[in-house]
Amino acid sequence: MNAYSTAANALRVPLAADVSDRLDLVRYATLAANSHNTQPWKFRIGADAIDVLPDMSRKTPVVDPDDHHLFCTLGCATENLILAAGARGLAGTAQFMPESGGGVRVSLEQTAPHETPAFKAIPSRGVSRAVYDGKPLSAETVAALEAAARSEAVDVVMITEPARIEATLALVVEGNDVQFRDDAFMAELKHWIRFDARQALAAGDGLFSGCTGNPSIPPWLGRLIFRFVASPKAESDKCAAQVRSSAGIMVLVGKADDPAHWVECGRSYQRFGLAATTLGLRHAFINQAVEVPAVREKLAAELGIPGRRPDLILRFGNGPAMPESLRRPVSAVVA
Ligand SMILES: Cc1cc2nc3c(=O)[nH]c(=O)nc-3n(C[C@H](O)[C@H](O)[C@H](O)COP(=O)(O)O)c2cc1C
């Protein structure tokens, strides 16, 4: 684990004072959340813009058949990139590019440098899949999280009443049950799991067992016993304990259901995650309820927005941190 922590820390050193070669801005962008930690992005550095492009070789077609999460992920990286650029005197403006498979152009113009709290939180933001302390948060804190996420393109639903948390949890568990009984889902998940620190370090991507609260085991053994250990019941029980220990649930709902809005949902999440980090709070995705179409429809009905697509769902509260995740080097993600 020493080598793992050293590598995780090295990825998160402060942003360089001089970002004229732009590569350090890309490093900060890659610290964003991303689905299954597949890092499905490429960055094309131009004279006065950086393009955030999809890397379709890293898509996850089973859990994400329409590339929704992939475009959300590009939005997460876009938000980090704009915050980091702003801190070094470059005002970034994002524009979705529907042509050539979709991507985001972040145009950069000189401005006064401005280090915001969100920028400062980039290296320490990370999901925590731990059990939290079960205590509620003040209405002001919940409102601050909601304000960080909301935008012209994205609506935010905050759920803090215990009865509504239970009703939402039932749908998370229902989605989880469908997924953990699906051979294709489990095979894809297993492909992205890194069963010990050595395997995680060699790949620089994927879901390290330590980040999901699981013990490290030799990868050959992990692959062998994965289906027995990761049973639908065990995983659902774990989800229930995690959600019931949280102060609330947040659902992001794009104003339209298309790649441009999926990118905006990713940006909203990233602002929320950074705001939570600034406030010393933890958060984690519980997307099982939005990944299975039939369950997602039930969630929309439960939220009183039938016909719309709930894009991302998260829990938040006070709790312990978990190990930080790894990233591939910047050289591997520059187009
Ligand atoms: C679009 C999207 C979907 C995600 N879905 C889940 C999920 O369902 N369950 C989960 O535990 N984490 C989920 N994550 C979190 C990623 O696994 C996490 O961001 C990644 O492993 C990197 O870790 P970090 O965010 O701590 O840096 C999701 C992230 C994104 C951006």
Concise summary:
This protein is an alpha+beta fold.
Beta-strand proportion: 15-25%
Percent helix range: 40-55%
For this structure, the CATH topology of the largest domain is NADH Oxidase
CATH architecture of the largest domain: 3-Layer(aba) Sandwich
Low-pLDDT stretches are: none
What would the principal axes of the Cα set say about the shape? globular
Number of helices: 13
In total, the number of domains comes to 2
Report the C-alpha radius of gyration, rounded. 19 Å
Strand order of the largest sheet: 1-2-4-3
Order of helices and strands: HHEEHEEHHEHHEHEHHEHEHHE
Question: Can you tell me about this structure?
Answer:
By secondary structure, this protein is of the alpha+beta class. It folds into two domains: 2-125, putative nitroreductase (tm1586), domain 2 (NADH Oxidase), CATH 3.40.109; 139-317, NADH Oxidase (3-Layer(aba) Sandwich). Helix content is 44%, strand content 17%. The chain has 13 helices and ten strands. The protein has helices spanning 2-11, 23-30, 68-87, 117-121, 139-149, 162-180, 183-192, 197-203, 219-229, 232-244, 259-278, 288-291, 293-302; strands spanning 41-45, 49-54, 90-97, 103-110, 154-159, 193-194, 207-208, 248-254, 282-285, 310-317. The protein has a four-stranded antiparallel β-sheet, with helices on one face. Helix 6 (162-180) runs antiparallel to helix 10. The longest helix has 20 residues, at 68-87. The model has no long low-confidence stretch (mean pLDDT 97). The structure holds flavin mononucleotide. Flavin mononucleotide is lined by residues 33-37, 69, 72-73, 76, 126-127, 129, 207, 284-285, 287, 325.
